[in-house]
Design goal:
Elements lengths: L1 H21 L5 H64 L2 H35 L3 H11 L1 H4 L11
Helix pairs in contact: 1-2
Amino acid sequence: KLKEAEKQEEKQFNKSGDLSMNLLRHEDRPQRRSSVKKIEKMKEKRQAKYSENKLKCTKARNDYLLNLAATNAAISKYYIHDVSDLIDCCDLGFHASLARTFRTYLSAEYNLETSRHEGLDVIENAVDNLDSRSDKHTVMDMCNQVFCPPLKFEFQPH
């Protein structure tokens, strides 16, 4: 609009220059001056609006840049510091608890393995100590009534 007003002003000045050379009537001169004044007022108005809008634009751009920098700083702080702090706060000894749990499990497994080996050693000793003769004598001694010969049959007269 400002450029448009400037073009109109230039046209008006060109016309007024051409007309003044042609020596127009006296009645036309005040009309030209008033139209030139109107165009100048319109140009000044538009120039003022343009300057005002340019200033608003510059302020808005500066605000945008400040907000952008603040946002980037906040995001950077969040990802660099705050996330780590949040994880530390939520940890609540998870790793220590997990380590104790697995140590208990390992201890139980080692004890189970030791117990199995001891049981296997006991069985191995029992196998090595198997003796059929001594077992036979032990059984016969324990149940001697069953394995002892009965009394002899005697002759009984009628």
